[in-house]
Amino acid sequence: MTPDALLIGSVALSRNEATTAFPHAADSTVLVDLLGRVSTALSADGQPGEWEMFELDMVSPIQRAYLVERGLMTPTFSRGRGAGRGFAVYQGGRASLEVNGLDHIHLLGSRVGGHLSEAWATLDAIDDLVEAAITYAFDDAWGYLTSRPADAGTGVRAYATVHIPGLMVTGQLGGVAMSLISQGLVLAPLWEGAGGFFQVSNRGCQGTSELLIAETVTAAAHEVDERERSVRKALHRDHPVRVKDHIGRALGVAQQAWSMTAGEAVSLASAVWVGVTMGVVDAPWMRSDQALGLMRRVQPGHLAVEELGAGHGGLDDPRIDEVRAGILRETFAGVRVCT
Predict the structure, then answer these.
(1) What are phi and psi of 198, to 5 degrees?
(2) Same domain, yes or no, for 223 and 254?
């Protein structure tokens, strides 16, 4: 992966208790008991403060949106409610754990830079900890049993987020998606595809090991990223004025707009970030981790929690679009397109 690539590596792991019905069919008293056993196991392990445990019903919609944007909670789980549903954060966000969502146990971990093997190592250790408290449902033929048959086997989903606006605007995205399908992988949009952000992930969880799944997704993301770099070089070589014009217009809007949606903000910031990686925009301070931080910072949950604070009016607060535009104006003040 090239140093200027923006890539997030995420791993999700699903498990279920052997003698308990799946959460959608289980009695609430059973779910409460299971949550209690998991909470006890987490609190007994490691140093105080390593785990923060919450009942899902006590987490506000704004906080749920914030956690989803950080990759610590799945959108489906964020919409849930009812007794026995819990959520835990490990070491301030290195990993998280959902209890009694689609499955009894759902672990999430991510790393900036696409280090899927590191994310998996963290989840693997937590998985061992939880398994000491509950007995997992496992079948010799199917592997770990899950509420969705497609997740049975290892129960592992690996995701690599790639930034591929060049492939998108040149119409090559369909060919990339078909190539990944032939490898047992899938390409799906992140942030509804705004800014050319997509995720490469495995389609199935059987017939291989957890680590091999992570390695396969990582290798495929490398290949997609290399194709993107080649496309950018060709565009810059063959259409330098058009490239500068597109990036310059995006920079101008980012520097002057006073209200904008999340999708627009991501698209504008993406164009400027592409300009930085191509040497078209003079902003040497903008690295991949800073670009990622900006993309997340302009999401509605982040703006409500980090910018508006206790005085926010929810995700529909009209000030969110104004604050978002202000962040882009501040971030790109003084930035220019190279002549």
Answers:
(1) -140, 160
(2) no
